[in-house]
Amino acid sequence: MAELSAAGGHPRPTSGVELYAWLFMRVSGVALLFLVLGHLAIMHLIHNVDEIDFSFVVARFENPLWRMYDWFLLMLALVHGMNGLRVVVDDYLQRSGWRILILVGLYALTLVCFTAGTYVVLAWHPGS
To answer: pLDDT digits over 44-84, tens only?
Structure first.
């Protein structure tokens, strides 16, 4: 018998894609916690809001490490949120047709946001 998880009383996945999605949610949640706290410290504690403008972002984006930091924050939050919505849709939509339609839309929206976010963070150069 599958062991019940602490939240919701659903059986904890033991193999397959659901196990990896379950593990991803835990690992990405911890990673997001540190990334978000770092972002908040840098953007709101170390630097005053008056200092953060276009030139601040340009100067920050000249360093590839800051671009990767922002990209990881954006992508982990996007995929973590998408996976959470996927679980909600699976939990509440019983009819297979609607569930598949909504999941396809969710995956398409995630892909569009992933592509746009990657382009902006990694390919954007001021003045181009």
So the answer is: 889 888 888 888 888 888 889 999 999 999 999 999 999 99
**Closest among 25, 8, 2, 16 to 81, alpha carbons compared:** 25
Q: Is 9 within the bounds of a domain?
A: no
Kindly state the DSSP code that residue 11 receives in the 8-state scheme.
Answer: B
Report the alpha-carbon distance of residue 128 to residue 125 in Å, rounded: 6
Collect all residues with Cβ–Cβ distance below 8 Å to 99 and sequence separation of at least 6.
Answer: 89, 90, 93
**CB 99: neighbour CB atoms within 10 A?**
15
Please compute the mean of the pLDDT values over residues 81-95 and round it to a whole number. Answer: 91
**Could you tell me how many residues make up the chain?**
128
Domain of 42: which CATH number?
Answer: 1.20.1300.10
Closest Cα partner for 5 from 13, 39, 104, 61? 13
Task: Please state, in angstroms and rounded to a whole number, the distance separating the CA atoms of residues 70 and 36.
Answer: 10
Is residue 36's pLDDT more than 70? yes
User: Over 60: is that where the pLDDT of 128 sits?
Assistant: no
What is the tally of structural domains in the chain?
1
